[in-house]
Design brief:
Length: 160
């Protein structure tokens, strides 16, 4: 049996990206977000998903340094990393796609500090899809420790 990686493919900017499905908890419509003052500019706020408060990261802000233009296709991909659960705001969640290992190439940019979270580029049906490792993405974000600490304090304050 050939190895492959099952991923959730989504759009940010004009490009297609993918996150391995092992990290994905759910894909939600964007609604009910609460802004939090003094957070890094890539954090749009927090939202409640299935009873849990999670921070929401605007992937367009992280990748392209511009705010996402939200519309009815905008989705929140809820991911669980080793450190934190969070929502990743994307332009459109397109599909679940099985990427064969032989279609996955290591990008030459892997050593580049600002894009080390892009772990591979998949060439599938004349499409180039960049694969993101959410653990590495989270670790590369400035101020993430403060966000994790804030979310822990919020969890302790919420009565169940």
């Amino acid at each position: 049996m050939k190895e492959s990686t099952k991923t959730v493919v989504f759009q940010a900017g004009k490009e297609e990206y993918a996150i391995p499905i092992l990290f994905v908890i759910s894909i939600e419509k964007m609604e009910g977000m609460t802004a939090i003052p003094h957070m890094p500019d890539y954090v749009t706020g927090i939202t409640k998903v299935r009873g849990d408060l999670i921070p929401v990261v605007d992937l367009e802000k992280v990748l392209y340094n511009r705010d996402i233009q939200a519309d009815d296709k905008t989705r929140l991909i809820v991911v669980e990393t080793s450190d934190i659960s969070l929502g990743i705001l994307v332009k459109d969640a397109k599909e679940i796609l099985e990427i064969p290992q032989e279609n996955l190439k290591q990008p030459g940019l892997i050593a580049y500090q600002n894009t080390k979270f892009i772990t591979g580029i998949a060439n599938v049906e004349k499409r180039l899809i960049m694969v993101i490792d959410p653990d590495t993405l989270i670790q590369s974000l400035e101020g993430i420790k403060e966000i994790k600490d804030y979310m822990k304090s919020q969890k302790q304050e919420i009565p169940y």
